[in-house]
Amino acid sequence: MQRIKRALVAASLALTAPLLAPTAATAAVPAGMAAAPYEYLGWGSPQKPTDVMAATGVKWFTLAFVLSDGGCNPKWDGTRALKGGSDEAAIKSIRAAGGDVVVSVGGWSGNKLGEKCSSASALAGAYQKVIDAYRLKAFDIDIEDTEFSNATVRQRVVDALKIVKTRNPGLVTYITMGTTPSGPDATGKDLIRRGAAAGLANDGWIVMPFDFGGHSGTMGQASVSALEGLKAAVKSAYGYGDDAAYRHIGVSSMNGITDEPGETVTLADFRTILAYAQQHHLARFAFWSVNRDRACGSGTDADACSGIAQSPYAFTKIVVQYKG
Hints:
Blueprint (H helix, E strand, L loop, with lengths): L37 E3 L8 H8 L3 E9 L5 E3 L9 H11 L3 E7 L6 H4 L3 H15 L3 E5 L2 H5 L1 H17 L4 E7 L7 H13 L5 E5 L10 H20 L3 H6 L1 E6 L1 E2 L6 E2 L1 H14 L3 E5 L25 H6 L5
Parallel strand pairs: 1-2, 2-4, 4-5, 5-6, 6-7, 7-8, 8-11
Antiparallel strand pairs: 2-3, 9-10
Helix pairs in contact: 4-6, 6-7, 7-8, 8-10
């Protein structure tokens, strides 16, 4: 499976901010949920989550990715059943060790539920199967590639998530997307405006500040710039004040060498992001991925290591310092 890449596709539809935007209230976030790095159990020589917990103190993971099995039915990587397999066993082991999980739907590759489900109600039903399978407290939609670029599908995802939020009071929800160094592109801004217009009280609009194709300054500085652009977009769409807008945005970075030639996110960049998140109380600080949070050795590839000199779990140890 490909590593995550960004889809930066311009949107032509502009929506105005709703007259009655959702309130700035957020769901109650359990301790540790705001710092939940991604781990991909399908490839990249994944570490045992409980080993990561013991080594770093991290309590939450974002497990990726749930996809379509070809129809409007969710499976891990589109192939592995939600129940009875290694994925469920991993979740049980995390919980037995005192942690918990956010499950992420989507990603760059594979069949997307947002496209394969023909209506918002059907898509909400698919999301609900995932939530019910693991009694989830948090749910992430990583909207990329064709699911992101199609306006009809963007609206379907927003409407489905609103249904899910109504059915599951207290469920924390994130929508994660690509970004430019100055914030979401036209497509991302359109998605946020659609959320506001639909009355979606989303807990966190999250950007992935990497694979820029060019930026100025450090990657930490570029990430902060992207987050400031995201904050402005969320504030404008929802009519939030500054503090509420910051609390409804978040970041999911990438550790080490990214998919973009010459682009590297360092430990110093993560510390810059951490300081910004702490200053503004962002909804989320995650990264792609735990699989890559180690130096490369003979025979390893870029999906299983960071590509830079580092000690094991050095990036996770920075992220786990974030308390929300």
